[in-house]
Amino acid sequence: MIEGKTRNTFYKVGIYIRLSKEDGDKEVESESITNQRNLILTYLKNNKLTMIDEYVDDGVSGTTFDRPSFNRLINDIEDGKINMVVTKDLSRLGRDYIQSGYYVEQYFPMKKVRYVSILDNVDTGRINSSENDIAPFRAILNEMYAKDISKKIRSVFKQKKEDGQFLSTSAPIGYKKDPEDKHHLIIDEETSPIVERMFKMAINGIGTKRIADIFTEEHIPTPAMVAKYQVNALSYQYGYWTGDSVRRILRNSVYIGRIEQGKTRTISYKNRKRVKVPKEQWIVTENAHEPLIDIETFNEVQRILNTSSKKTVKRSYLLTGLLKCADCGGSIGIGQQSKGRNFAYTHCNLYAAYSKRKLCTPHCINYQALELMVVEKVRELCKICMNDEKLERLLKEKTLDNSYRNAIKNKLEDAINRELKIKNKIEKIYEDRLNNIITVEMFKSMTDKQNEILDNIKIEINTLKEKIKNFEEEEKEMYSYDYRKIINEFLKLKNPTKEVLSKIIDRVEIHQDKKIDIYYRIKTLEKIKN
């Protein structure tokens, strides 16, 4: 039991447990979830402390603090549900000494949260404890351990790649993992004909889009379906082949027996973001498995793909990237319908990709006419913004009545008062349980009910605060001349550039009935547009 003088405070304890094989933890009795829990509960019992909630992150590395249960713990601290955190040791809190130090030395004290690390004999509730002073050094040692483990794991994986072992979680379509060696690929007799047929069709001059349409019409399973990625089953594209997916397969050198690995890497053991690796640094293994496609066929297909891609020259339009489909939410593309004619038309990309499936409608309108209309409408509103008298009159007409704004502020004040009363009720329930006035069952039932009420009040408070914030932002912009610099720049241009227009327009939505809605980045324009 950790001894020492503590503040006279009623503690609402949250116990935090973490286990991760990634940074070297072992599923043995000393580190198991069960052992951590038993050790902490014994500590709570010996110190007559009441556990409010348990937070467990199983299989999550200590080098990151973006963990589901840890985030829930922090949220509960913010909400006042927890004012004491107990872990088995400092390494359970985390192995990043900077972040661990931040929580132990800054965040917890700032939030008046007592932190206890049992095996490290650290207790921030004690006064003048030398053990607390060495906590940062323990955190550094924990991080050094995690860094060392990370290096060893990277080294092992690099060696496996250099040995030609296949390390991806699933095999590419046409192959499957060898039952006797999960790091070796063997031909899948069930799906390999799909790949072989695809290469033959490409050799015969059939384009990737046409191959995709044929495979979709024949209900040939896609790579996602073969790999049983059911998470995508509700998306528009699930079960449909695309030209891009066909092209990826035709480009994949795995089909000539080659394995290319190490194409990306994480920035560090702390930062899991992946970055691309230069091609000359890839780990390439030839003849790693039986080829499905002969080298001559593969090279000819690459030549065909390279030739077809060179023919495609994409033209940039003023509204490229700003057009959205109002019905399916996807992007609107721009293309020329007739060769040799300088007319472009819009089209819904989802419809274009799956025109025979009728997942959306064409949304086809003359692009040149659309661009002229959009630019003219933007100019009209921008000129109003530069006319102080006209702008002020319109804003007065459209600004919400002050009485309504005051009513929202009054509602917010009332909600905050109700939140405080509920928190006081919960505090009283905690005290009644501590003094054995109510049973555990009554405690749980009463706190669950009050917490449900509290959660609803918090949602109400956040909604009201968001409304007030929007009012303040609108007012701030109305009396700020910063946005006028952008508008003035736009009005000076005879032919506006995409860069300037993108600062003013957020998006242009096209409806099935060809109705156009323009949404603005500048709130003043958005407010007066109708």
Written overview of the protein:
Helix content is 49%, strand content 14%. The protein has helices at 33-46, 68-78, 90-93, 97-110, 130-133, 135-162, 192-203, 208-217, 223-226, 243-251, 295-311, 349-353, 367-385, 388-398, 402-434, 440-478, 482-492, 498-504, 523-528, and strands at residues 12-19, 50-58, 84-87, 114-117, 122-123, 175-178, 181-187, 259-261, 264-266, 274-276, 283-285, 323-325, 332-336, 344-348, 505-510, 516-520. Mean pLDDT is 78; it is low at 1-8, 26-30 and 231-236. The relative contact order is 0.07. The chain folds into three domains: 12-149, Resolvase, N-terminal catalytic domain (Rossmann fold), CATH 3.40.50; 175-311, Hect, E3 ligase catalytic domain fold; 317-530, no CATH class. It has 19 helices and 16 strands. With 530 residues, the chain is of the alpha/beta class.
In short:
The chain has 530 residues and is an alpha/beta fold.
Helix/strand layout:
Elements: E1 12-19, H1 33-46, E2 50-58, H2 68-78, E3 84-87, H3 90-93, H4 97-110, E4 114-117, E5 122-123, H5 130-133, H6 135-162, E6 175-178, E7 181-187, H7 192-203, H8 208-217, H9 223-226, H10 243-251, E8 259-261, E9 264-266, E10 274-276, E11 283-285, H11 295-311, E12 323-325, E13 332-336, E14 344-348, H12 349-353, H13 367-385, H14 388-398, H15 402-434, H16 440-478, H17 482-492, H18 498-504, E15 505-510, E16 516-520, H19 523-528
Parallel strand pairs: 1-2, 1-3, 3-4, 12-15
Antiparallel strand pairs: 4-5, 6-7, 8-11, 9-10, 13-14, 15-16
Helix pairs in contact: 4-6, 7-11, 8-10, 13-17, 15-16, 17-18
